[in-house]
Amino acid sequence: MENIKVPARRDFLKASAAVGGGLSLGMYLPLGSRVAEAQAKTSSPNAWVKIGTDNTITIMCARSEMGQDVYTSMPMLVAEELEVDVNKVKVEFAPPAEVYINALLGGQLTGGSTSVRDAWEKLRKAGASARMMLIAAAAKEWGVDVAQCKAAGAMVMGPGGKKATYGQLAEAAATMEVPKEVPLKPAKEFKVIGNKAQKRLDTPAKVAATATFGIDVKVPGMLYAAVAMPPMIGGKVASYDDTRAKSMPGVKAVVQYSRGVAVVADSYWQAKKAKDLLLITWDEGPNANNDMGKVWGGLKEASGKAGAVFREAGDADGALKSAAKVYEATYELPHLSHSPMEPMNTVADVRADGATIITPTQFQQLVPFVVAGATGLKPEQITVVTTFLGGGFGRRVEVDYAIDAAEISKAVGAPVKMLWSREDDMTHDSYRPGGYYKVQMGVDGDGKLVAYRYHGTSPSISARLFPSIVKDGIDPFAVEAIDNFPYAVKNTKLTYQMHDTGITPGYWRGVSHNLNAYVVEGFIDEVAIAQGKDPIQFRIDNLEFEGEKHKWSGLSAGIPVGARLKAVLEGVRTKSGWGGKLPEGRGRGVASMEGYNTCLACVAEVSVTKNYDVVIDKVTFVIDAGQLIHPDQAKAQVESSIIFGQSACMYGEITVKNGGVEQTNFDMYRVVRMNEAPKVIDITFAENNNTPGGLGEPATAVVQAAIGNAIFAATGIRLRKMPFTPENIKGSIKA
Amino acid sequence: MMISFNLNGKQASADVAPDTPLLWVLRDSLGMTGTKFGCGKALCGACTVHLNGNAVRSCQIPIGSVSGQKVTTIEGLAATSPIKKAWIALDVPQCGYCQPGQMMQASALLAQNKKPSDADIDAWMSGNICRCGTYPRIRAAIKDAAKMA
Question: Which pTM does this prediction carry?
Answer without folding.
Answer: 0.95
